Amino acid sequence: MTSLKGKTVLLTGASRGLGVYIARTLAKEKATVVSVSRSKSGLDKTSDEIKIVGGKGISIPFDITNVTEFSTLVHQINKLVGPVDILINNAAIIISRTFVDYSLAEIQSVVTTNLLAPMELTRLLLPSMLERGTGHIVNIASLGGKKGVAYNSIYSASKAGLIMWSDAVREELAGTGVNLSTICPGYVSRAGMTVDSDLTIPKFAGISIPTDVANAVIKAIKQNQSEVIVNGGLLNESMTKLLLAIGQIYPPFVNTIYRLIGIDKVNSRHRENFDIGINRGYAEIPRK
């Protein structure tokens, strides 16, 4: 798919974080952006961003944890703008805990939002794409799904599942005209964990800006890239790939490197800040 002009794109998690930047970049490509999120006020802001760059889009407030209602959402989209050409599964949540401190409700929330929702939405939209012989699915995963990280075990598990499911479905789609890309960002400024102003990301861990991820999404669609790592520039991304490859052969080495870099300390600090926010009543489980 060399051009996104006139294509209808369904973007989940569009009300904040990476979603806003992805929506803006899609609008610049002259795509019609269908923005979905549970936050109406956030969607209004995204709509303003789309209009600023001269784009076209509609907003649909919807809580994607209501996976049994996805058929209603898809029906609504088909009535408003017709069939979806591109699906971008971006919505995600992260809850930092030691594993034994997670509640069942928190585990279910993370897994439903990060893994089950993309699966079900794809399942419902894929038949139309296959029938038309064209389409693209983009799943926003994470480096946390390539290598488990302390205090984010459920998030890592959900993103690892997303990566492996994407890989399997990609094989099934070979030769159909429908393609699938997985984007794996590391730390991203002004999005996810880094919204916590008390966190300092270690230099060697790598950190990207949101537009890096948004541009990677567009490039992945146009060039039909299978999996893309976004982590603070070409050199750092190359080192990350090498480290992950070594980890497949000798995991203890990568664990040591992660501890030396200080990734476990960053996640522990985020866990502490999150708990303080919950206890004081000014934070909630984050959801895009």
**Biggest sheet, in brief?**
7 strands, parallel
Radius of gyration: 18 Å
pLDDT averaged residue by residue? 88
Count of DSSP helices? 9
Describe the strand arrangement of the main beta sheet, using strand numbers.
Answer: 3-2-1-4-5-6-9
Describe the structure.
- The longest helix is centred in the middle third of the chain and has 29 residues.
- Helix content is 50%, strand content 15%.
- Helix 1 packs parallel to helix 2, helix 1 packs across helix 6 and helix 4 packs parallel to helix 5.
- The strands form two sheets. The chain has a seven-stranded parallel sheet with strand order 3-2-1-4-5-6-9, sandwiched between helices. A two-stranded parallel sheet has the order 7-8.
- It has 288 residues and is α/β, with parallel strands linked by helices.
Give the secondary structure arrangement, pairings included.
Elements: E1 8-12, H1 18-28, E2 32-37, H2 40-52, E3 56-61, H3 70-81, E4 86-89, H4 104-132, E5 135-140, H5 153-172, E6 178-185, E7 187-188, E8 207-208, H6 210-223, E9 227-230, H7 234-249, H8 251-261, H9 263-280
Parallel strand pairs: 1-2, 1-4, 2-3, 4-5, 5-6, 6-9, 7-8
Helix pairs in contact: 1-2, 1-6, 4-5, 7-8
